[in-house]
Amino acid sequence: MPGTSATPEDTKVRRRLELDNAVAAELSGTQDEVLRTLESDLECQIWLRGNILTLEGEAEAVEAAEQVVREVADLVGRGHEIAPGTIQAIRGALRQHESPSRVLEDVIWRHRSTKVAPKTVNQKRYVDSIRNNTITFGVGPAGTGKTWLAVAMAAAALSRREVNRIILTRPAVEAGERLGFLPGDLMAKVDPYLRPLFDALHDMLDPERVVAHLEHNVIEVAPLAFMRGRTLNDSFIILDEAQNTTPEQMKMFLTRLGFNSKIVVTGDVTQIDLPNDQRSGLVTVGEILSDVRGIDFVRFGGEDVVRHKLVQRIVEAYDEHQQRLAPELRSASDRRSA
């Protein structure tokens, strides 16, 4: 049972929690990294001596910290390893009145030491949307796991034989979809544009398995222009960097959908590389298809960034800068996406 006592400052409380030894070991982690993350995220002071955890701070912060610690204890009891990112995931879930274990225990793919599961509530919604809808759009900033989770879901679907192949595509905007001037065969030409998809694939599968799948067209990686005129049956299809499609390309791509297939479209509308007078297909499609049954849009924010903490700060700083734009610059930005 926790004990509570008043500190010299009337507004602060101190609470001591007796932890299971396994929970105490997970919280101490490597050089107390998890404990320090907990302290910085929850705005109260935390000490761990043996298996006694002491929380001190404003009553609300101490109460929130105790709730997180109890969730950590529950996850450790279920066999989870606790990392600094786990603390942030627990906090995010609790803020949105979601069960942290429900989010973090939804393991969608395992490969050797790699275990892929949602780390935020929005990522969980994204994964559920892919399961339950034929077409899912994941829209949000870099580092929110849009492509990573989509490739993991594709690998899982292929392993369960729910689909016969995985198709990964991107618009090759920098080369204007005209890749002939680059040296080498098709794979060499498109490699600079599709490398992030290859990287995700190699995280999910053994390199030799990826090579064999590519050779037998079980996995196909191609620029968006090569999708024209096809009907894609029994496939898990991922369109990455969709903010760089034109409305016409987006329509062309979506109408490639065949029987027993799923489509996942990912993109970030703040990173459009199209000419200023060209509207993004990812912006347009949200207006056209938002109410169509079987199609879902999941929108990520800075709170869903699961890369290095600095990436989240960068995203937040750019968002704040966008809000401070002078009216004339904001108008120009609006015209670009209008």
What's the gist of this structure?
The chain is of the alpha/beta class. The chain contains 13 helices and 12 strands.
Describe the fold and architecture.
The structure is a single chain. Strand 3 and strand 4 form a beta hairpin. The protein has 2 domains: 3-104, Ribosomal Protein S8, Chain: A, domain 1, CATH 3.30.1370; 114-337, P-loop containing nucleotide triphosphate hydrolases (Rossmann fold). The chain has 13 helices and 12 strands. It has 338 residues and is an alpha/beta fold. It has helices at 21-28, 33-42, 59-77, 84-95, 100-104, 121-132, 146-159, 186-204, 207-215, 247-254, 281-289, 309-323, 327-337; strands at 3-6, 12-18, 45-49, 52-58, 109-111, 114-116, 135-139, 165-170, 219-223, 235-239, 262-267, 295-299. Strands 9-8-10-11-7-12 form a 6-stranded parallel beta sheet, sandwiched between helices. It has a 4-stranded antiparallel beta sheet with strand order 1-2-4-3. It has a two-stranded antiparallel ribbon with strand order 5-6. Helix 1 (21-28) packs across helix 3, helix 2 packs parallel to helix 4 (84-95) and helix 7 packs across helix 8. Mean pLDDT is 83; it is low at 175-183 and 329-333. Helices cover 45% and strands 18% of the residues. It starts with a strand and ends with a helix.
